[in-house]
Amino acid sequence: RISIMSQIPSLVRGLATAALLLNTLPTSTAFSTMTMSTGTTPVSSGTTLARKTSRLPTPPRIKQTQNWREAQDLSQQFTKNYKVANDQDRTTVAIIGGGLSGLACAKYLSDAGHEATVYEARNVLGGKVSAWQDDDGDWIETGLHIFFGAYPNMMNLFEELDIEDRLQWKPHQMTFAMADQPGQFTSFQFPAGVPAPFNMAAAILTNTEMLTLEEKIRMVPGLLPMLLEGQSFIDAQDELSVQEFMQKYGMPERINDEIFIAMGKALDFIDPDQLSMSVILTAMNRFINEADGSQTAFLDGNQPDRLCEPILQHVRARGGQVQTGTPIVEINVNDEDHTIQSLTTADGRTIEADYYVSAMPVDVLKRLIPKPWSTLPYFRQLDELEGIPVINIQLWFDRKLQAVDGLCFSRSPLLSVYADMSVCCEEYASDTNSMLELVFAPCSTDAGADRNWMAASDEDIVQATLEELARLFPQEIILDNDNNNKNSGAQLVKSTVVRVPRSVYAATPGRNKFRPSQATPIDNFVMAGDFASQKYLGSMEGAVLSGKLAAQVVCETKQSPGPAATTTTPAVVVKPVHSSIADKDHSERIPTGVRGNFPIAFGGGQQGRGSGAKVSHP
User: Fold this and answer.
1) What is the SS3 string spanning 140-154?
2) Is 249 left (phi over 0), alpha (psi -120 to 50) or beta?
3) Which of 92, 256, 277, 296 is the one with CA 20 to 30 A from 315?
């Protein structure tokens, strides 16, 4: 600690000097509607479409990081070292779950020449990124999904599928609504061409509207160990909540109010007093060390068509299959060694394969664990992981609102992040009307909300959202309390509310030690999912990486392809179970099974509440 503290003055001087040298940078200011660029953009089919929304080219520096190279090297393993020599070497793999993790696993197994089949319970692919069309033809989304430059496996996937042009990159800035200046925004603007970590230093130091210089300096003692020690320090903070970490390192409470609350709600839909500090540090470490790591992109349309469909076509072109509407209701095991014998579908079919991969949400998987597995510490540790609830809201207005071309942190007690999709996304583009997509979080008392919003009516949720928007943007959304809260400003034309009772795993303090490895104690069973052990958060990047690692486990277990891939590969080693679980005796449990056939039973999101809800999607 003494050696770290002794370096703080020089670090602060260096960062301040870097910011002062960038005398051409604009200071952070409040801003209004940003101009949308027009023109044409090529699409993967070779045709050219007129575009209404802006997009920047792929930031070149995201392909120059060590994390990118590692992701690329692993991708190339599947087409080189892991590639089977002939059809006799192919293995069949049954993948349970058609979210990003399951689709990524199938993609890379197909690249290696294996026969992968994805079994998705619902009639739509994507899992937590699924979307569907309502009776009006509008796409209803499970969440507001943003792609970061610090998503190397996801970015490699886009490149490998030749769909990079479907990402709409936005200006490199982080934009916050000004809580004490309604209707105004402030941004941390990252200067182009400046290397990491100096571009983030400049972005922080040149913004004078959120934190004082003293407060910024007082952040350094907690962040400097992260820079010097790296991942080992980050992992060690998993036992501390954000607020406990702040107290330990003497950070002012305003840093929590101004920055960490917004980050915590965006990263894990939870308030900082409930959130592990390792989540914040993992994101900040990527953003600080990768020059374009915090730059964001939107997909130019709905996820099923623009991302899931290319993966599906890739898998099918290589002999694999993707079957939707195929719930798995039972995992059948052999009596002798408890390996998987087969799977049973809801319609009574039997599925057999050489290997089986679970790409189900952890809450669904726990309901299907066979009785003989239930005593194993590897599976019992899953009791410590649980998905967190979140609500996604889409609001259509009768006019164009003041808009930012990019993601905005609302800094609202009820809302996390939002975006005007009519400005940010080509498929939703409109010159005359706005469609806001908002993340409502936290939405349960366990996560920090003042009430159980998951049980509230759609009308109550939309009304609470409008009241928050009226507070943030009083000149455009005006609620008349004397006229039944009728909006005398922009009129709401349509709204949708999608509840996801079990989204990404709740990253409360101490959860990392219970995240299971992709390799399991069962010889022909492999684990995938964003909750599984990998160096990224419960996110799209984490899901893709976990699916990729699961494919690696299958390939490594099936064969010894050469010197570059050996049985000592970390992904193939079963992670030791923490002593709090491993040292106990566990009695057998009968699997409860998946109950119902509505979307949330399989870890998805749905409109309406309960199993009897009228929903307009599978």
Assistant:
1) EECCCCCEECCCHHH
2) alpha
3) 296
